[in-house]
Amino acid sequence: DLTGKTILSIAAGKSLAWLEEQFCAPLPFVRAMPNTPALVGEGCTGVCYGSRVTPEMKEKLSDFEGGYSTEEETKETIGGTYKSTGYVMDVLTGVSGCAPAWIFMLIEAMADGAVAEGMPRSQAYECAAQAVLGSAKLMLETGKHPGELKDMVCSPAGSTIQAVRVLEEKGFRGVVTDAVITAVEKSRSL
Fold first, then answer.
1. 55-79 pLDDT, tens per residue?
2. Gyration radius (Cα) of the chain, Å
3. Residue 190: pLDDT over 90
4. Mean pLDDT across 26-32
5. How many other CB atoms sit within 10 Å of the CB of residue 81?
6. Is CB count within 10 Å lower at the N or C end of the chain?
7. What is the mean pLDDT of residues 108-135?
8. Which residues contact 108 (CB under 8 A, 6 or more apart)?
9. DSSP per residue, the chain
């Protein structure tokens, strides 16, 4: 008997309507998409609530999630865009659910470059990871646009702007954008 129960799903690509159909019951359903940084209390969980979820239920779930994650509440459907049949939860999956893997790849690649130039691997991982952590915290706490923060680091004729030039030549932004879009499309197909 599920009377009085709230159903929380972390299944990628499964809509609230799909959940309701599977359970064959008018229950309060919640879709959530946490990410692995929740393991250290720094997650980002996308969440959308079904129509039967009360404000009290939302508050209880938000309090629970606050122990391991920030909560990004959204409506389930995009609506009004060229992809109006899509779900915002699929986009949240692509931008925050999958992203830790790419960030780990970035950290590993940064460390590989440092090791190639003579730094011990353990120190290279530590420095690269701290650079990612500090950069993210700087953006979140200052509220500044990432482009503005990037420009603050790029001194005229300096090493950073030369590295940015190489990243742009190699298609860094396009590859990352394509990765997010591919993850969203896969989530939508599940």
1. 999 998 888 888 899 998 888 776 6
2. 20
3. no
4. 92
5. 9
6. N
7. 98
8. 125, 128
9. --TT--EEE--TT--HHHHHHHHTS---EEEEE--GGGGGT-EEEEEEE-TT--HHHHHHHHHHHTTTEEEEE--SB--SSTTTTSBHHHHHIIIIISHHHHHHHHHHHHHHHHHHTT--HHHHHHHHHHHHHHHHHHHHHH---HHHHHHHH--TT-HHHHHHHHHHHTTHHHHHHHHHHHHHHHHHH-
Question: Which residue is it, tokens 């920030």?
Answer: 70
Which pLDDT value is given to residue 147? 97
Residue 13 tokens read as 């690509």
Q: How far is CA 46 from the centre of its chain?
A: 8
Residue where the block lists tokens 């899509």: 86
Give the pTM. 0.85
Task: Tell me what pLDDT residue 82 has.
Answer: 46
For 43, phi then psi, to 5°, come to -75, 170
Sign of torsion, CA 57 31 36 85? negative
CB 59, CB 49: distance < 8 Å: no
